[in-house]
Amino acid sequence: MERFDPMSHTAIQPLAPDGYRLRLPGPTFVPERVLQATAQLVVNHRGPEFRAALARAEAGLQPILGTENRILFYAASGSGMMEAAIVNVAGPGDELLIVTHGQFGERFSTIAEAVGAKADVVAAPWGEDIDVDAVEARLREKDYRAMVVVHNESSTGIVADLARLGALVRDRPTLLVVDSVSGLGGIEMKQDEWGVDILVSASQKALMCPPGLGLASVSAKAWKVIQGGGRLPSFYWDFRRALASAEKGETPFTPAVGLVAGLIEALDMIHAEGLPNVLARHTRLANALRAGGAAIGLTDFGPGKRKSSTVVVFDVPAPLDGAAIVRELYQRHRTVIAGARNRLSGKVIRIGTMGAIDADTIGTDLAHLEDVLRVLGHNLTPGAGVAAARASLS
Fold first, then answer.
1. Is 121 helix (H, G, I), strand (E, B) or coil?
2. What is the largest CA-CA distance in the chain?
């Protein structure tokens, strides 16, 4: 009988071809030191080593969130954390006000409908800033259990004004629930100062980790609602259970042990650079990419002024097709960017400007874009995009 040899192995087959460049607005490129951290020996998730790791991760995250709250960790995607936020505050008969300005705001509406929560929607046209006055007018109509909004809408490249939105509900019973999956770590977040009551995020974007680790931060105002009962039924997502475990230095269910190790390394990188420097770098590089795009005929999507620092969304000039640009970038350069899987399909391309990127990253993006656009018949001055980005960075 053949015996199992735990030391035997075959060559690991890579998932990606040589030269592969992950330039999506998430998941993003993971630095080598973070990858190495995730490959450490797996430890007991109820043991002292992992309790210490969770404490380190929490301490590293709190300044990035701008909070003194406990951080709740889940083995989950960003969409899972969005659902968690809804089921922990919505009860039978409670109404939510969902503010949408893109695909992921609409996902909040879809989640609310799926779990049986009642929701009204105030929608901003895609590519425009949220009309805070319109939101305030809706809040005057009734007492909502929560107002729900996406911080950084990666489908449109527009950032919500959380300071103004938070001010609307500070003296109301209404909670402010925010998804900052694609914003946290690349765009300023001041949860406590702005009055964000539930903030959810995930590991795979500006936090520079592989997908699979979700997190939530809950204010004292929100805990009063959550602890009060009368919520939609949940088991895995129950924040009360997660808080009880966090008080013991644990998670309620088996956590993504390796991803927590990677997160600690990524947080060390962020704090070594300095959070203000990290945020400024994201803004500087996003602006350089926009400047380079404008020089080769790619304009920003939509008239909104509150542009994202973690994703750039370009209109695709006629008669080009966004899907063709995405396809040619991969086939010719192994550069992977995003189009759109919604009403903007074929009309925009989206490039991540988050995480471990620098000026060379943006220069390479633009060089590849110039090459592909010329192949597809778009008229441009060779080198103009790269030159404009360099000028922006200078």
1. strand
2. 75
- H/E stretch holding 103 reads helix 103-115
pLDDT of residue 6: 60
pTM over 0.85: yes
- Over the stretch 179-218, which tens digit does the pLDDT of each residue have? 999 999 999 999 999 999 999 999 999 999 999 999 999 9
Sign of the Cα torsion 381, 382, 383, 389 reads: positive
Best CA proximity match to 310, nearest among 164, 207, 198, 199: 207
> Tokens at residue 32, please?
């080598």
Give CA torsion, residues 324, 330, 333, 335, to 10 deg. Answer: 110
User: In which region does residue 157 sit, left (phi positive, over 0), alpha (psi from -120 to 50) or beta (all else)?
Assistant: left
CB 267 within 8 A of CB 59: no
Alpha-carbon span 73 to 323, nearest angstrom: 36
Q: Give all strands (DSSP E) within 212-368, no chain letters.
A: 213-218, 311-315, 335-336, 348-352
For the chain, which domains are there?
32-271 (3.40.640.10), 275-393 (3.90.1150.10)
C-beta atoms surrounding 88 within 10 Å = 27
Q: Is there a contact between 155 and 312 (Cβ–Cβ < 8 Å)?
A: no
For 296, residues 6+ apart whose C-beta sits below 8 A from its C-beta are 366, 369, 370, 373, 378, 380, 381, 384, 385
- Cα distances (angstroms) measured from residue 50 to each of 6, 57, 325: 25, 10, 44
Query: Which pLDDT belongs to residue 2?
Result: 56
Q: Does 350 belong to an annotated binding site?
A: yes
Model confidence at 1: pLDDT above 70: no
Q: Answer for the pair 127, 340: CB distance below 8 angstroms, yes or no.
A: no
| Residue with tokens 């990188």, as numbered in its chain | 269
What residues are paired with 311 via a beta bridge? 352
How many helices (H) and strands (E) are present in the chain, helices listed first?
14, 13
Q: What is the mean pLDDT of the chain?
A: 95
- DSSP for 1-35? -PPP-TT---PPPPSS-TT-EE-SSSS----HHHH
